[in-house]
Amino acid sequence: MKKIILLLSVAVLASCGSNSEVSAPTENLNEVLTCIDAKGLVSKYGAKSVILDTSIVSGDDTLKGAIIFPGTPKQANVFFHEGKISDVSIQGESSAWKTASGLYLGLPLQDVEKLNTKNFTISGFGWAHGGSVVSWEGGKLAGDSTLTHLASFRNKRQNISVEEFNKVSGEAEFDVRHPSIQQMNPVVEQITILKPYIPSKEEGKGIAKKIQSSQIPVR
User: Fold this and answer.
1) Torsion on CA atoms 116, 121, 126, 130, rounded to nearest 10
2) What's the burial of 8, exposed, middle or buried (CB within 10 Å: 0-12/13-18/19+)?
């Protein structure tokens, strides 16, 4: 069994200045989800381009999954639920992939607003989960019961002073219309598209029991 641990550190630009433009890629990331399972990945992309049953370390999490096209601009991480592909993610400075909705690595925040057709909410910068989309606020990128998007922006100060950066940092939530965030206009550095998991009726009951048993009784 192959077991490869990848330390997925997000690539950042050397400069803290303005964002460099990245050409829109052409490969459709959504097509990976249509492979259904590991067998489908191998069938579509070839055994030499797929690493299965791999431990992927990202941030504080270690997850089992697969990697397609490792070490190339087409590298993507694929995860499963009960043997079926549940989500696929890319991260870094650029990638050969984009989503069917138009999201791609290196896309500036203001352009993401246009794709979403409205403002959205992100977490504050400067910590482990900084710059992550908390809510698309009902915009187009929120998706539906069949597909949704997760995204994170470059978690680094640029184009603004330390004082201004501190105003939009920390474990808090901010509307992207905040002047400091607009001035930064950070680029997308991580994208995940996933099929929302809806538990069965019996699983739902089990989850409810666990929550109920963990609650502190009111006195």
Assistant:
1) -70
2) middle
The backbone region for 143, taken as left when phi is positive above 0, alpha when psi lies in -120 to 50, beta otherwise, is left
Task: Retrieve residue 117's tokens.
Answer: 């057709």
What is d(CA 172, CA 188) in angstroms, rounded to the nearest whole number?
Answer: 19
Instruction: Tell me the residue ranges of DSSP E strands in 138-202.
Output: 148-153, 173-175, 188-194
Q: What are the tens digits of pLDDT across the range 111-143?
A: 999 999 999 999 999 998 999 999 999 999 998
In this model, does residue 22 exceed pLDDT 90?
A: no
The alpha carbon dihedral of 130, 132, 138, 139 has a sign of: positive
Cα-only R_g, the chain: 19
The model carries a pTM of: 0.80
Structural contact between residues 63 and 56, judged by C-beta atoms closer than 8 angstroms: yes
- Which pLDDT does position 157 carry in this prediction? 92
